[in-house]
Specification:
11 helices
């Protein structure tokens, strides 16, 4: 049997990157996930290529190499409150969308761990992220001299049928995503997806990708695949493990070697995102300047604005009095009425 050729594999990955993506189809245990691992790792080596992976099976969480991981829980995706018709039943909102955008703006590569088991929620989240990044790509194109984006974006979707089946892609909320998908190649975006059966994955999406076929059960062989078998004299049901058929040729995928482990960034990102901005010193009003002047003349020390409930003078001393903020504001209003701002 043929051995793995790194040069051939590199060429396949580059071809998929330029043409808009690859759909990997094979039975369980043939090596789909590890093939996607190898493709993603190869693309991560490029400075101008972003890798974003979406995984609900947790295969990437435990098997892929070191990559920042953002977990999306069941409660992060909620039904909209104003449900009025049956058409609204599966309309969602992302409660932590601002935090997700912050993660996308601060990390080149990301693994999104989708903890929800609902295909409709998975599809909603993936569409939301992709639509957002596509809009950014289009904005960048409008500002460059050659009207081309500065970077490429690759989306890896494990078990794609759990996010995009025929039903989900015919609903109205998928309308924008399908437009994005159809024009993705022009905006330097590529989709690398995988499924066990072709018919489970949306035909609208997979027919616009390049097929990478592994071992398939005979009952899952579609008419199109039988035509390919006849044309290239190949039997998909007898392909050895890690052997794939792509663009008229077979190749052997690399043996996957994990380098480090994915790591969670939710807590770290939330802490940075919620960190209050340093407040700028407040500009003195004319009234405050007048009060400082009066205090200086009477006591020899300028008026000090108190900002805490108690004031302590000197280290280790007890508080000398309670600060009444409402009383001071009332006093200031009286003074302002007596001394206008332009006085």
């Amino acid at each position: 049997m043929n051995q793995h050729s790194e040069k051939q594999f590199q060429s396949i990955v580059e071809h998929g990157l330029v043409e808009g993506g690859i759909h990997v189809n094979a039975s369980k245990n043939h090596g789909k996930t590890r093939l996607l691992f190898s493709m993603a790792q190869k693309l991560r080596e490029k400075d101008n290529v972003r890798v974003l992976a979406f995984d609900g099976s947790e295969a990437w969480l435990y098997g892929f190499s070191k990559i920042p991981t953002f977990s999306i829980s069941e409660r992060d995706i909620q039904l909209i409150n104003d449900v009025s018709t049956t058409e609204d039943i599966e309309r969602y909102e992302l409660t932590n969308w601002e935090l997700v955008k912050y993660a996308l703006s601060t990390h080149k590569d990301l693994l999104f761990r989708l903890k929800t088991r609902k295909p409709s929620k998975r599809g909603f989240f993936i569409r939301t992220v992709i639509n957002h990044l596509d809009l950014i790509q289009r904005d960048v194109r409008a500002t460059t001299k050659d009207n081309e984006p500065k970077q490429r974006i690759t989306y890896f979707i494990e078990e794609a049928q759990d996010a995009f089946n025929s039903r989900s892609t015919t609903r109205l909320e998928a309308e924008e995503f399908l437009t994005v998908f159809n024009e993705a190649r022009n905006n330097y975006e590529s989709f690398f997806t995988a499924s066990q059966r072709l018919n489970d994955f949306s035909k609208t999406i997979r027919t616009k990708q390049l097929y990478c076929i592994g071992k398939i059960n005979p009952e899952d062989t579609t008419t199109a695949l039988r035509r390919m078998e006849k044309e290239h004299n190949i039997d998909f049901s007898k392909l050895p493990q890690r052997t794939w058929f792509f663009e008229g040729e077979t190749f052997v995928s690399p043996e996957w070697k994990q380098k480090g482990k994915p790591y969670q960034i939710n807590r770290e990102l939330r802490a940075k995102f919620m960190k209050p901005q340093a407040t700028q010193p407040k500009k003195k009003s004319k009234l405050r300047g007048f009060l400082d002047y009066v205090d200086t003349m009477l006591t020899g020390t300028p008026h000090i604005e108190q900002s805490q409930n108690t004031e302590t003078i000197g280290e280790g001393l007890e508080p000398i009095g309670k600060y009444d903020k409402e009383q001071e504001e009332s006093d200031l209003r009286e003074i302002e009425e007596e001394f206008p701002e332009d006085w």
